[in-house]
Structure formats: structure tokens, C-alpha cells
Design brief:
The protein is an alpha+beta fold and 376 residues long. 32% of the residues lie in helices and 27% in strands.
């Protein structure tokens, strides 16, 4: 059912859903509502029927409750995750885990079953240069997951490299267009050497993909520092994106967006996803299996969207797109090329790479979990 929703929350009218094809006719009408706008950030909501059944914990909840353990592997591109609790746990591509020998970002969405064995998870580093305990942290484990990777450029770098669809020339062009520095503020070579020392760089995680993620981390830090007129980097680890996102001045700026927009996502029980536009341009969209899961994630999703808006230079008089434009964005372009992979045991991921967008959809035993779409 929700695989159909992921595929058919597509070219729908803003308020009156138009069914597309026989499979879509079996579903209630889908619709996109909005925009809800604060300064340069516009939020749209994707409405649909929720999947029945228990709602999984988020990774943030699982770690906080002590049910989930994330273990260091001495491999930059992989961590081990175990769920000792009695509830499933949803982990989303873009979740940042704090600790270990360096902070990481998870590159695939999946559900970690209750009482699971240790599961290998693909990750990228978002803290170049560290390969040792930080302060009093336990370098063998990760303590929390309260932040997510912001900006569509960083997500594109992570997902394109992870699925093997990265085009170096195109990435460089987009990096230049969006102000991502060609030369990183943190030297790649020490990190490359540390990674090689522990045998952590593999053919599955090319250095080029990791370098793109590092470049985007540096760009996020630079843009946020410029906007806030104060460095967001932490002295204990200047390269840590996690610590930069914990900056108190940033939190105060995020709160203005949260106060203005959070309630809009909590008023209707059929919201299963959202899309954002920054400075009038659609950036991304995410769809989930249920309203209950969306509700759990919504505060963190909104905070991450606010970070993306804060990091962007405000375009004066930029006009928010309408809901119909978002519906068109959700539709699959004709030139999309599909690639199916299994990034985590029991998970199938379909990546759809097109000139104008990059789309990933994950399922578990044929059941829809999460769809993410990024504008190029």
C-alpha cells in the first residue's frame, strides 16, 4: 500500500487529489497542502492514509532509552547497530550519531527489528581528522542521535556517492553554484592516512564520496558562521558537524522557525510527509509510512529544515512555490534511471537518478518505509 503511496504522491492537485493509473485509484486521494512560510523557508505537507500497526521508535528515542547500541568498528564506512528492546526502531538516512572515534552520518533508511542481532550499517564521517576518544566519550560506542544532515547539497553528496550514482563533474558544478569550497578547511590527507592505518577505506566507500561529504560539512559550517556572525565550530573538535549543530546561537535562530511552523505539522492526522522550499526554490521532500512516525520525526525534521534556511543567503522578495509545483516535483521524471540495492540486511532501496532530481525509496519485505527526493 505505502509503496504505492510513495510512487503516487506524484502529480496530484493541491487540494483535490487526482488518481493516476489503476493502482492509484485503489488509494484515497492524495494531496499536497501549503505553503506555510517563515522568512525564507516554506513548508508543504503531503497527505495520505497511514500504515496500520505499531509505530517504531526513532533512533534518537532508542539510544535515549538504552535499547539501541551503536558500536564502533574501526572502519570509517561502517558501524554496527543492535536493538535490544521490544520495539522496532526506524533509522533514517541523514541521522547523525555522536561519539565513537568520529561522528558519522547514516546513509540508508531502514527499520531495526526488536531484539535484533548486530547489524552492519553504511555510514560516512562528518568529523574529519579525529580518530580517538573525544573528551570523556567512550570511543567504542555512540551516545546520541539528536541531529540530522542538513542541506540538499550535503544529502546529494552522501546519497549519490553511497548508491554509486555520483558524477564528479556534476557534483563540482553544483558545489560551485552553491558555494561549497573546492578546498576544504580541514585537510583530507591526515584523515585519509588515519583511515588507511586502520584499514577502513574500502572499495564500497571511495575516498571521492567521503571527500564530497567533508567538503559539504565545511561549507555548512562556513555558511552558518557567516550568517550568525560567529563561528559555530567547537574548540574540542572544529571539524565536527554534530558539535556545530549544537551551537547555542544556531539553536536560538532555529527556534524562531520552529515557533512559527511546528504547529502546522501537528494539526492534521493524515500528514505522512513534507517538502521544503528555500528562497522560493523546492529543495527536498520526504514521505513516511504513517502520520504517527512523521509526528515523531517532525520536530527534528523542522529543525534541520530551519538550519538549511539559516545557512542560505536570503533572496529578497523570493516567492514561495505553490502546492501544484510541489506535486509536480514529486512526480518521477521520464529520464530517471533506476538502481536497486540492499544497503542493510532485509532492506531494498531503489534510487532514481535524473537530471533534475535524485530520489531514493526504501522498503522492507515489500512494505514501504521511506521516500526521500532531492532537487538538483
Amino acid at each position: 500500500m505505502f509503496r504505492q503511496i510513495a510512487l503516487h504522491v506524484l502529480a496530484v492537485a493541491p487540494l483535490i487529489g487526482i488518481a493516476l493509473g489503476s493502482a492509484a485509484r485503489a488509494e484515497p486521494p492524495q494531496r499536497v497542502s501549503g505553503p506555510h512560510t517563515h522568512e525564507n523557508l516554506s513548508i508543504f505537507f503531503i497527505h495520505g492514509k497511514s500504515l496500520d500497526g505499531p509505530v517504531p521508535l526513532t533512533l534518537e528515542e532508542g539510544l535515549a532509552k538504552g535499547f539501541v547500541e551503536v558500536h564502533e568498528t574501526d572502519t570509517v564506512s561502517q558501524l554496527l547497530v543492535q536493538n535490544k528492546g521490544a520495539e522496532d526502531v526506524f533509522i533514517q538516512a541523514g541521522d547523525i550519531v555522536k561519539g565513537g572515534k568520529q561522528d558519522r552520518v547514516v546513509t540508508a533508511s531502514f527499520v531495526l527489528p526488536a531484539k535484533s542481532k548486530e547489524t552492519a550499517v553504511p555510514v560516512y564521517c562528518v568529523e574529519a581528522g579525529r580518530w580517538a576518544p573525544r573528551g570523556n566519550e567512550d570511543s567504542r560506542k555512540f551516545s546520541a542521535s539528536a541531529e540530522m544532515l542538513p542541506t540538499k547539497e550535503a544529502k546529494l553528496a552522501m546519497l549519490a556517492a553511497e548508491t554509486g550514482a555520483s558524477n564528479v563533474g556534476a557534483l563540482r558544478n553544483r558545489r560551485a553554484e552553491n558555494g561549497v569550497p573546492e578546498q576544504r578547511t580541514v585537510n583530507v590527507e591526515p584523515q585519509r592516512q588515519r583511515a588507511n592505518d586502520v584499514g577502513s577505506l574500502t572499495e564500497q566507500t571511495p575516498m571521492g564520496g567521503q571527500s564530497e561529504v567533508w567538503r559539504n560539512v565545511a561549507a555548512i559550517q562556513q555558511k552558518l558562521s557567516a550568517k550568525l556572525k560567529k563561528s559555530v565550530t567547537a574548540s574540542v573538535s572544529e571539524s565536527s558537524l554534530q558539535l556545530a549543530l549544537e551551537n547555542k546561537d544556531l539553536a536560538a535562530e532555529q527556534e524562531r522557525y520552529v515557533q512559527a511552523l511546528q504547529a502546522a505539522g501537528e494539526t492534521e492526522t493524515d500528514i505522512v510527509g513534507y517538502a521544503i522550499a528555500v528562497n522560493g526554490k523546492i529543495a527536498s521532500a520526504d514521505v513516511y509510512a504513517s502520520n504517527a512516525l512523521f509526528r515523531k520525526l517532525w520536530p527534528r525534521l523542522l529543525k534541520t529544515a530551519a538550519t538549511e534556511a539559516i545557512s542560505a543567503d536570503v533572496v529578497k522578495d523570493a516567492k514561495a512555490p505553490d502546492a501544484a509545483s510541489v506535486s509536480m516535483f514529486l512526480a518521477q521524471p521520464a529520464d530517471a534511471k533506476e538502481e536497486v540495492s540492499a544497503p542493510v540486511e532485509g532492506i531494498s532501496r531503489t534510487a532514481r537518478n535524473a537530471d533534475t532530481s535524485y530520489d531514493t525509496e526504501t522498503t522492507r519485505a515489500g512494505q514501504f518505509l521511506h521516500r526521500s527526493k532531492l532537487a538538483r
